Amino acid sequence: MTGPSEETAGEQQSEQAQEPAAMFSEERTDSTPHPGTGPYDAQPTQVVDPPPQGAYQPLPQPGGYQPHYDQNLPPLQPPAQPQPQYPAPGGYQQPPAAPAGTPVPAPGAVPVAQGLPQPASGADELATAHLVKQQKRTPQSGWRKAVYLGTGKLVNPGESPADTRRRELIARVNQPLRGCYKIAMLSLKGGVGKTTTTTTLGATFASLRGDRVVAVDANPDRGTLSQKIAIETTATVRHLLRDADKITRYSDVRSYTSQGSSRLEILASEQDPAVSEAFSENDYRRTVNLLEHFYNIVLTDCGTGLMHSAMKGVLDVADSLVVVSSGSVDGARSASATLDWLEAHGYGDLVKRSVVVINSVRPKGSSVDLDKLAAHFGAKVRSVCRIPFDAHLEEGAEIELERLGGDTRLALLELAATVADGFGGRV
Questions:
Q1: Do 156 and 261 belong together in one domain?
Q2: Domain end call among 173, 196, 220
Q3: pLDDT (0 to 100) of residue 29
Q4: How many other C-beta atoms lie within 10 A of the C-beta of residue 366?
Q5: Which one of 93, 177, 363, 390 is at 20 to 30 Å from 111 when CA atoms are compared?
């Protein structure tokens, strides 16, 4: 006979025995929610700690709907709290945070420092300078050349600063040129070496560049430009204009010019002053329009008169102007008056692109301060160049660059490089 307490204990044992069977019955699946009475009730497969103080609570949804917390998911994490900033010891400054939108490197990627040289691309890696070992340039003058040749080219001390300077000037002379560049050589005073400068400048261009260079004698007073090289033909600019309709190829033009050893070609003027006076502005424009189809550089040896009929055509088509002055006071005054006249008659832009040449026509230096003279012209024009006295130029005969002194050839090279700086329209 059992009492009430024993019956109660028996019922509890039978209920406990049935609970495991009910929990693992076939009717239950993984998608069926586990029984529970609250979001923080512990389940057999999960232990949930009580939320910390100040834990994140979801905001109430509109309409009074409260989202149901899935007990299969991990507990909600509170939002990250800003960390207090403490001053670093020793004055160390924390690096600034990266701005928004900065790409984050992938895990394991090597960061690339900003502002440092990056590895060469495939094309740069195959460049000649990258693959071929650079050799010293062979010396061209001085004791370095003597050592180089004396040792059978076994010891190469490299080029001298003078050789480096000359190579840089030659590179400037050989600047690329598109179309035809027209240079007007001008001077109001005779005897300052304008025709000589025209010949030497043109010869320097022709000897270094691979394109064609021609000098035109536009002096109405029986110009002497054609006497600066060996004469190959008696044809003049007048004959060229007469046969302009028959000229279609370079070989046709070549029959009207004489060519020197430097490859400079010269188109002579009429030797009769009465005929050359008829050389008008229209005649000059027709001449240049014909020559620019076959030549890359055209130099014009102008006369001493600015009011000559052809002078307006010369100035209108010129890309650059070279004003020649002697180192004397009267020569400098004439050159300065030429620049002033050009500015007063609407050629101010041409004056700014001009180059003044101070030509030494005497073997001994005068008492004139050439530095002050150069500073005077330098305030008006783009550049000022000096040509020293040379005994070969004083002869007045045919000019050969090989017979010029080293200082004269270097000065002419600097003049040609200065004029060539205007080929690209940068100055």
A1: no
A2: 173
A3: 47
A4: 12
A5: 93
Q: For residue 91, what are its two tokens?
A: 């004055």
Mean pLDDT by 10 residues, the chain (427 residues): 49 49 47 50 53 54 52 58 54 56 56 55 65 71 74 74 88 92 89 90 94 89 83 90 92 94 91 65 91 95 78 91 90 90 91 92 77 91 93 89 92 95 72
Would you state the pLDDT for residue 158?
74
Residues 158, 204, single domain; the answer is no
Q: Is residue 26 part of a domain?
A: no
Q: Do 183 and 165 lie in a common domain?
A: no
Is 184 a domain residue? Answer: yes
Is residue 332 domain-shared with residue 285, that is, in the same domain?
A: yes
Give the tokens for residue 140. 């061209």
Q: What is the pLDDT of residue 255?
A: 93
Examine the domain organization and report whether 201 and 159 are in the same domain.
no
Q: Identify whether residues 189 and 153 lie together within a single domain.
A: no
Sign of CA dihedral 16, 22, 24, 30: negative
C-alpha distances (whole Å) from 206 to each of 2, 187, 257, 314, 404 are 136, 23, 14, 22, 16
Among 133, 128, 136, 135, which Cα is nearest to 163's? 136
Which CATH number belongs to the domain containing residue 268 in this structure?
3.40.50.300
Q: Which domain holds residue 225?
A: 178-420
| pLDDT, position 58 | 54
**Residue 303: C-alpha distances to residues 272, 365, 399 (Å):** 15, 27, 20
Which residue, 210, 208, 214, 215, is CA-closest to 169? 208
190, 164: one domain:
no
Helix axes 194-208, 406-420, angle to 10 degrees: 80
Give the chain's domain count: 2
H-helix segments, 230-269:
237-242, 250-254
**pTM, rounded to two decimals:** 0.66
**Do the beta carbons of residue 280 and residue 145 sit within 8 Å?**
no
The predicted pLDDT at position 193 comes to: 87
**Both structure tokens of 104:** 């984050």
Based on its alpha-carbon atoms, the radius of gyration of the chain, rounded to whole angstroms, reads 46
**Are 228 and 273 within one domain?**
yes
Residue 375 covered by a domain:
yes
The verdict on residue 16 lying in a domain is no
| H or E element that contains 128 | helix 128-131
C-beta of residue 308 within 8 angstroms of C-beta of residue 278: no
